[in-house]
């Protein structure tokens, strides 16, 4: 295998400063592991980090050399060794530039590094007052540490759960202030570093050279030998991985000030103190800070006296005081920060404070986080674009940021940019999974430049373009309040009034009830993940939410229904145990074929065969022409009143589909197993504009004979259902009910059907997506067919919906409930039919003659339609 050119380059660079491959190899390996193969971190500044690490390794190996190297720093070493440091304490001090964040330090934090710990200066900064030092000491209290390492599942290192709970400040920002670290080094190493610096500055014109920056940089450390090394950033809660380090800089929004005692200030949970000189050296800062969710004013602002108008940052060229101490108060819920380097690297940092009361806190992997975030977005914002990805959103954001930051034609502050241009595409797609009341969610602009749109529930935030500051720095700073879908409490208008520059409040159009909120959060896929496919919902008509119910993908017995699924009950003649593979491919139909006339009901493509389907359609649509069965002692009538029995109104003798099942020898993918595989079509629950409430539609073209879904609900005896109906009538509830399906297809086969076997399905409380299918008189585009799967007992079967014709994408899927609108004594609530069919039985045209004529019309219509 050809050697990795990056490895070769690393060797070459080290060789140039007198380090052999043998020395480089082990250290490089460790660094790659430590930095998650992030070569940029190793390569930057001409492999400075690598050189540092090698020297540290070497120094650890040769104590004599180390002693020599430590000349002049004995005092500090003594201090260090006499007081074993707690990790965070060291690191916190690092923020003031006193701790090395070199790989060895970080590895030491991880607990198993052969790297030597960096030396730590024990003295305060030159000119630093004792007060300053003591304030540093105050913030250097040991804190829980968690190490975030993207892409590593095992990257969490936590300290004391109690600490975690009591100090829920999980915000950490990688400090770019490696130059502020002061570390004593051996002369040899110093020489090499100088060499390295020179090399790294070669050809980097637009950037200030490190040497130049060194000159500009105030000599804060008081040591001419101080070499500035990488510092891990720490915050009271978290230490970030080296991967998340510089050269990104925290918004420069607050001057550093030491004169306010920390005790008097709100307790900071994030401190970012980039080295000003370093900022000058490396970056044209473009920083955006978006504060989400009612964030309080940063404590640092309080510390700084909140002197500046409009939160505009102080130019970094001021003094050391202009170094930032940006703190985020405990109450802050989320803080978004964006930073970029002149090299075009953009970093988005989101910190939030939501650990309170979460004793089981652990660091999730980045993959886990993204997945969970994606799911949450899909649920909350009802995005159904299959390409939706949080990562993509973040990338888009970076791109937009760079566009904004680099396009000089965008002079006007009025200009706005889409963070997520892809959302425009979504606008064009069918409205899904959300309320679409207005294309544009009501948004208040506290001060121009911020906008929000909602296209079918997908919100596109727009951020203000960067502000051109007089000192040439471009800084974006916007506090933003987004309250979507009523998820937040009241008082938003007040917040709007108080909003600072660029603040945004998206006002909810609809205050959710607890049930709706629950639904919104958990059911944006109406199936709750129970099906193979997700089924979103959409309301483009009003602000109603889908009814709350329990989604079940399979029928469940409520109480008294007798359903026997035992294998022993399936006799040899009821299963094809000798079959192998796909029963449909066999030359002779096996015992599981649905009937002798048509053989199997399905085609090899998984559709119901045309002739079988036609038989079912004509049987359902023209019952007068087919056989109806009349019971002598009708279980339906019995369930209503078994003392004064009404005569049976008739039951349709239906054709059954029989599917292979567990006792069959064929393959699970056998073509005679369709319904049992569950929903495969792209469906959507939507609010119908015709006043039928919610309905179901397809999002894709469905050929004739396609299995759409099963009618799933609680298996009740008809007696139980009737009792339910009575209870509902007395409870005065006006909500819509799912229409029950009576499983009466085999009643003709039995002399007397007892109550436990006279079953129906009720999807009102427990059901699947079929509970949303609306009724259409006669020419519905779906037909229900009884399907036997697990049990040869005909009194229990599955009721499956198949398309009765080709159905176009976005067409509503309908089913003829078989309802007689003139019969007030039905097991179901009657409704004013709005099916829109010209065969509607609810228009007082329901004489059987007229129906018959209409049926002829329908047949003709269907023939015409099929002929195209
Ligand atoms: C099985 S549910 C269908 C889903 C229902 N539309 C909803 O919003 O939950 C049956 C109920 O929907 C309504 N419905 C169904 N078909 C209808 C039609 N053609 N015209 C008017 N309302 C209809 C009736 O209220 C009926 O009781």
UniProtKB/TrEMBL annotation:
The alphabetized UniProt keywords are: Chromosome, Metal-binding, Nucleus, Transferase, Zinc
The entry's cellular-component GO terms read: chromosome; nucleus
- Subcellular localization: Chromosome; Nucleus
Q: Where does it mainly reside?
A: nucleus
The record, for PROSITE patterns, names: SAM_MT43_3 (PS51580), SET (PS50280)
- Where's the SET domain? 681-818
Q: Where is the segment annotated Disordered?
A: 59-187
Q: Does the keyword Transferase apply?
A: yes
Q: Where is the composition biased (Polar residues)?
A: 129-138, 150-160, 176-186
Q: Under the GO molecular function aspect, what terms does this record hold?
A: histone methyltransferase activity; zinc ion binding
| Pfam families registered for this protein in UniProt | Pre-SET, SET, WIYLD
Q: Which Gene3D superfamilies match?
A: Histone-lysine N methyltransferase , C-terminal domain-like, SET domain
Q: Where is the composition biased (Acidic residues)?
A: 59-78
Q: What is this protein called?
A: Histone-lysine N-methyltransferase SUVR2 isoform X1
């Amino acid at each position: 295998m050809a050697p990795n050119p990056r490895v070769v380059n690393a060797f070459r660079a080290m060789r140039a400063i007198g380090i052999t491959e043998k020395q480089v190899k082990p250290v490089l390996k460790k660094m790659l592991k430590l930095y998650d193969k992030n070569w940029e971190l190793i390569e930057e500044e001409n492999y400075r980090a690598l050189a540092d690490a090698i020297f540290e390794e070497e120094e650890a190996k040769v104590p004599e050399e180390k002693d020599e190297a430590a000349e002049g720093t004995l005092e500090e070493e003594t201090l260090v060794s006499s007081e074993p440091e707690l990790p965070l304490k060291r690191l916190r001090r690092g923020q003031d530039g006193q701790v090395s964040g070199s790989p060895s330090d970080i590895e030491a934090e991880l607990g198993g590094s052969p790297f030597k710990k960096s030396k730590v200066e024990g003295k305060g900064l030159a000119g630093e007052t004792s007060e300053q030092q003591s304030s540093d000491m105050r913030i250097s209290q040991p804190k829980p540490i968690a190490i975030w390492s993207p892409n590593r599942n095992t990257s969490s290192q936590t300290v004391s759960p109690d600490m975690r709970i009591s100090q829920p400040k999980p915000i950490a920002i990688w400090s770019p202030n490696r130059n502020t670290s002061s570390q004593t080094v051996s002369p040899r190493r110093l020489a090499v570093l100088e060499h390295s610096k020179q090399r790294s500055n070669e050809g980097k014109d637009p950037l200030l050279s490190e040497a130049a920056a060194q000159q500009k940089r105030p000599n804060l450390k008081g040591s001419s030998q101080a070499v500035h090394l990488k510092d891990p950033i720490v915050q009271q809660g978290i230490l970030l991985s080296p991967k998340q380090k510089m050269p990104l800089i925290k918004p420069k929004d607050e001057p550093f000030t030491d004169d306010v005692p920390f005790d008097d200030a709100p307790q900071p949970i994030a401190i970012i103190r980039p080295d000003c000189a370093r900022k000058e050296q490396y970056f044209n800062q473009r920083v955006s800070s978006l504060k989400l969710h009612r964030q309080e004013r940063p404590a640092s602002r309080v510390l700084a006296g909140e002197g500046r108008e409009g939160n505009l940052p102080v130019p970094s060229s001021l003094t050391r005081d202009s170094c930032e101490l940006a703190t985020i108060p405990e109450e802050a819920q989320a803080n978004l920060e964006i930073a970029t380097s002149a090299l075009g690297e953009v970093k988005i940092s989101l910190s939030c404070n939501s650990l309170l009361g979460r004793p089981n806190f652990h660091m999730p992997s980045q993959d886990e986080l993204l997945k969970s975030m994606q799911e949450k977005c899909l649920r909350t914002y009802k995005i159904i674009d299959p390409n939706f990805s949080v990562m993509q959103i973040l990338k888009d954001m970076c791109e937009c940021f760079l566009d904004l930051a680099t396009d000089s034609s965008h002079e006007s502050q009025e200009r706005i940019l889409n963070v997520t241009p892809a959302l425009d595409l979504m606008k064009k797609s069918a409205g899904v999974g959300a309320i679409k009341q207005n294309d544009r969610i009501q948004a208040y602009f506290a001060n121009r430049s911020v906008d929000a749109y909602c296209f079918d529930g997908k919100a596109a935030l727009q951020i203000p373009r960067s502000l051109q500051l007089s000192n040439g720095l471009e800084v974006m700073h916007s506090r933003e309040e987004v309250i979507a879908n009523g998820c937040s409490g009241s008082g938003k208008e007040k917040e709007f009034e108080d909003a600072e520059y660029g603040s945004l409040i998206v006002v909810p159009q609809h205050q959710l009830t607890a049930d709706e909120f629950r639904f919104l959060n958990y059911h944006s896929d109406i199936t709750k993940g129970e099906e193979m496919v997700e089924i979103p919902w959409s309301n483009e008509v009003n602000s109603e939410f889908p009814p709350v119910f329990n989604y079940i993908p399979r029928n469940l017995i409520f109480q008294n229904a007798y359903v026997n699924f035992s294998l022993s009950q399936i006799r040899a003649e009821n299963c094809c145990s000798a079959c192998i593979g796909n029963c449909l491919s066999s030359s002779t139909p096996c015992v599981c074929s649905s009937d002798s006339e048509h053989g199997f009901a399905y085609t090899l493509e998984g559709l119901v065969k045309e002739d079988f389907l036609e038989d079912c359609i004509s049987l359902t649509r023209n019952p007068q022409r087919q056989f109806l069965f009349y019971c002598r002692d009708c279980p339906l009538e019995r369930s209503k009143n078994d003392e004064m029995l009404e005569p049976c109104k008739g039951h349709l003798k239906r054709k059954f589909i029989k599917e292979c099942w567990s006792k069959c020898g064929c393959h699970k993918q056998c073509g005679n197993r369709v319904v049992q595989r569950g929903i495969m079509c792209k469906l959507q629950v939507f609010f119908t504009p015709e006043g039928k409430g919610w309905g179901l539609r397809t999002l894709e073209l469905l050929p004739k004979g396609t299995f759409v879904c099963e009618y799933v609900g609680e298996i009740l005896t008809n007696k139980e259902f009737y009792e339910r109906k009575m209870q509902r009538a007395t409870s005065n509830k006006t909500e819509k009910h799912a229409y029950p399906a009576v499983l009466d297809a085999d009643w003709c086969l039995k002399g007397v059907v007892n109550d436990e076997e006279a079953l129906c399905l009720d999807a009102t409380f427990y059901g699947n997506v079929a509970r949303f299918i609306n009724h259409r008189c006669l020419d519905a585009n779906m037909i229900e067919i009884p399907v036997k799967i697990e049990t040869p007992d005909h009194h229990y079967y599955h009721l499956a919906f198949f398309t009765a014709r080709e159905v176009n994408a976005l067409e509503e899927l309908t089913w003829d409930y078989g309802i007689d609108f003139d019969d007030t004594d039905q097991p179901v609530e009657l409704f004013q039919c709005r099916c829109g069919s010209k065969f509607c039985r609810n228009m007082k045209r329901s004489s059987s003659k007229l129906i018959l004529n209409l049926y002829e019309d329908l047949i003709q219509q269907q023939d015409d339609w099929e002929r195209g």
